[in-house]
């Protein structure tokens, strides 16, 4: 079991998942996409017809669902890998992610999952450097221009990406913000491997100190 964590936060399309996966592969560590967890809870709420705006009902659901993110995203045994990227989920997930009880439930699961890994975990999301793992070995805030982030999100479009960033950054519960001690990396026009290597070098430097 290991308490080594590389924590990565940033807005939609900043390259978090791609970079986090690449870093995990370089180190042989586990990878955790926490956005997929909020998306999976959202899928289940929509599937069961739970009113997304009913905080208590969605929180009760979040407490009881069985979730996996690897090798596929599943909720209560149902594969939602494709469904979590639908327009409907893109819109509803900001509401679910702003629910403080849902967040408490997801944060507890994220800490448990990371603690159970044999080597270390690369965790990416919006509150990983600030709330979930404030003492992580390395804290990274990834960003990129809105144009490039929307391009990476394919069909979602600039307006939808910008709307979600606004909701994620201005909500009361654990808003997206750069931690004071997080290293800011702008991935606009940068190669994934190059960014991943920089993060691994940063880890080695921090572990030596
Ligand atoms: O990274 P993503 O686009 O898959 O995230 C989906 C939504 O979940 C997004 O609106 C922000 C939210 N989220 C969050 O609030 N906290 C996290 N740790 C991860 C994602």
List keywords for this structure.
209 residues; alpha/beta; Rossmann fold; five-stranded parallel β-sheet; three-stranded antiparallel β-sheet; 9 helices; binds 2'-deoxycytidine-5'-monophosphate
Percent strand equals 15-25%
Strand order within the widest sheet?
A: 2-6-1-7-8
Write down the Rg.
Answer: 16 Å
Distinct bound molecules: 2'-deoxycytidine-5'-monophosphate
Q: What are the secondary-structure elements, in order, as H or E?
A: EHEHHEEEHHEHEHHEH
Record field, number of beta strands? 8
Structural class assignment: alpha/beta
The count of domains is 1
End-to-end span in angstroms?
Answer: 22 Å
Low-confidence stretches: none
The fourth-level CATH homologous superfamily is: P-loop containing nucleotide triphosphate hydrolases
What is the CATH C-level name? Alpha Beta
What's the helical proportion of residues?
40-55%
Describe the structure.
This protein has 209 residues and is an alpha/beta fold. It has a single domain, classed as 3-Layer(aba) Sandwich (Rossmann fold), CATH 3.40.50. 51% of the residues lie in helices and 15% in strands. The protein contains nine helices and eight strands. A hairpin with a 2-residue loop joins strand 4 and strand 5 (78-79). Helix 7 packs across helix 8. The longest helix has 17 residues, at 192-208. The two termini are 22 Å apart. The structure holds 2'-deoxycytidine-5'-monophosphate. The site of 2'-deoxycytidine-5'-monophosphate has 14 residues, from helix 2, helix 4 and helix 8. 2'-deoxycytidine-5'-monophosphate binds at residues 12, 34-35, 38-39, 93-94, 97, 125-128, 164, 168.
